[in-house]
Amino acid sequence: MLLKRVLLAALLSLSSVNAFPNPNHANDLEAREAEDNLVARGGNTDCGSYASWDKGKNRCVCKDNGKVYDSKHKTCNCPPGQVWYGYGCVVDCGKQAHYDKWQKKCICNNNGQVYDSKSKTCSCPPGKVWNGKSCIQDCGKDAHYDSNQKKCVCNNKGEVYDSKSKTCSCPPGQVWNGKQCVVDCGKQAHYDWHQKKCVCNNKGEIYNSQSKTCSCPGGQYWNGKKCICPYGKVWNGKNCIEDCGKDAHFDWNQKKCVCNKNGEIYNSQSKTCSCPGGQYFNGKKCVCPYGKVWNGKQCIEDCGKDAHFDWNQKKCVCNKNGEIYNSQSKTCSCPNGQYWNGKQCVCPYGKVWNGKQCVEDCGKDAHFDWNQKKCVCNKNGEIYNSQSKTCSCPDGQYFNGKQCACPYGQIWNGKQCIPNCGKDATFDGNQKKCVCNKKGEVFDSKSLTCSCPSGTVWNGYACFQDCGKDAHYDTNQKKCVCNNKGQVFNSQSKTCSCPGNQYWNGKQCACPYGSTWDSGKKTCKQNSY
């Protein structure tokens, strides 16, 4: 049986017109052996549609040259590893290549590609890709090979090709905006080609190139529409500053609102400026009205160089202690008779200041009286001693707290203390006793009064007999005489009345109606008819 197989194989190899090698020869022998068995057994010679019985070969032979008959399925196929090429079986090179009988190898359909026998696929050599026409440099997805420049060129203009990663990206600091590479401005800004710089998306915000962020400048904040300053502040072009109104501006050095006009003072409540303390603006600066000057707080009287204005006294006060201000000349000088000793105004030696002028130095106990032109003691009644410049009460007197006074029971007569004789008498130094001022009166030492002796009265000239109210003393008659003529004086009662039964009719003593006076009997008698 083995010998039969060897002989059959030799015959097949010699008779074959196919120039291609047959890698599945064993299978072919098995097929033919199966056919021989069929013939030997007188089997059916039906070879199917793809083959016919070859009597010479005594077997089924495929109609297509090179194919191998499959007796089980009555089909014809190229040997394993081969495919039908239209005129014969050739090596199976896959879909991407074909067998070149001259080169006796698989050749890729696409020129320049390299065949891989294991995968039966074609691909460009390492580092290259198929562009639809030929293998070119593999530039990745972001770039393409430029045959003129002989290098990979990025698809997006402006991007730079990285041969290691085969990727394209914008140069450092730039990003792709969908059309081209522009400066990388971050998320909050975009590149403005007209201004050639990054511009913030929110109008008014300022771009920070280091952090690539945007923020409102100088204390402003974004209110959803624009950058604005906080309440009470305004934008000066650089920063948010205090809203100083129209009359003033914010001074960064002083950190406060400063008035535009020189010298004006800012009012933070009204946000206005005005000249301070009585000043007015003269077109250049704040000045005081004529005759006044600025003391740093307000306009005050112009006191000249020698003096200053004292608000408590509301007047100009000399700088030197004691000097007097002259409002006309606006100068100061020491007052009447004084001179400046370097510290204060003082009077010449031997004189003192009495508040108005220099006067004689009268010591502590006295003062100079301009009316009397002499030193007068401060204590009432004291006598001034010009040598010792002291005061003391005159001889015999003492100071009782109010004035100089004589001892109890004595009075001052202008020269000395004498016994107090009251108003009615005076002290007689010769007689050493009180003598009544009215001649004839007698002095009473207890009551310090004078009165006429008992039984007499003072008539304006001297002491005379006391005649009562109804009469008077007649010096010629040396007796009391009634004031009403005709009346009779009663020495005991010191009264006057009409004699007898007469009465006073307002003019004289008269008898009652119907009677007449009887001078002999000293009575009124009834008239007889």
Count of DSSP H/I helices: 2
**Helical proportion?**
under 10%
Q: What is the makeup of the main sheet?
A: 2 strands, antiparallel
Oligomer: single chain
Termini separation = 250 Å
Q: Structural class of the helix and strand makeup?
A: mainly beta
In terms of DSSP E residues, the strand content is 35-45%
| Strands side by side in the biggest sheet | 1-2
* Rg from alpha-carbon coordinates: 81 Å
Beta strand count: 64
Average pLDDT confidence is: 85
Pick out the low-confidence regions.
1-42
Shape: rod-shaped
In short:
Keywords: Signal. Residues 1-19 form the signal peptide. This protein is mainly β.
Please name the defining characteristics of this protein.
single chain, 529 residues, mainly beta, two-stranded antiparallel ribbon, 2 helices, rod-shaped, disordered N terminus, signal, QI74 protein
What is this structure's SSE topology?
Elements: H1 2-15, H2 25-40, E1 51-54, E2 59-62, E3 68-70, E4 75-77, E5 82-84, E6 89-91, E7 97-100, E8 105-108, E9 114-116, E10 121-123, E11 128-130, E12 135-137, E13 143-146, E14 151-154, E15 160-162, E16 167-169, E17 174-176, E18 181-183, E19 189-192, E20 197-200, E21 206-208, E22 213-215, E23 221-222, E24 227-228, E25 233-235, E26 240-242, E27 248-251, E28 256-259, E29 265-267, E30 272-274, E31 280-281, E32 286-287, E33 292-294, E34 299-301, E35 307-310, E36 315-318, E37 324-326, E38 331-333, E39 339-340, E40 345-346, E41 351-353, E42 358-360, E43 366-369, E44 374-377, E45 383-385, E46 390-392, E47 398-399, E48 404-405, E49 410-412, E50 417-419, E51 425-428, E52 433-436, E53 442-444, E54 449-451, E55 456-458, E56 463-465, E57 471-474, E58 479-482, E59 488-490, E60 495-497, E61 503-504, E62 509-510, E63 515-518, E64 523-526
Antiparallel strand pairs: 1-2, 3-4, 5-6, 7-8, 9-10, 11-12, 13-14, 15-16, 17-18, 19-20, 21-22, 23-24, 25-26, 27-28, 29-30, 31-32, 33-34, 35-36, 37-38, 39-40, 41-42, 43-44, 45-46, 47-48, 49-50, 51-52, 53-54, 55-56, 57-58, 59-60, 61-62, 63-64
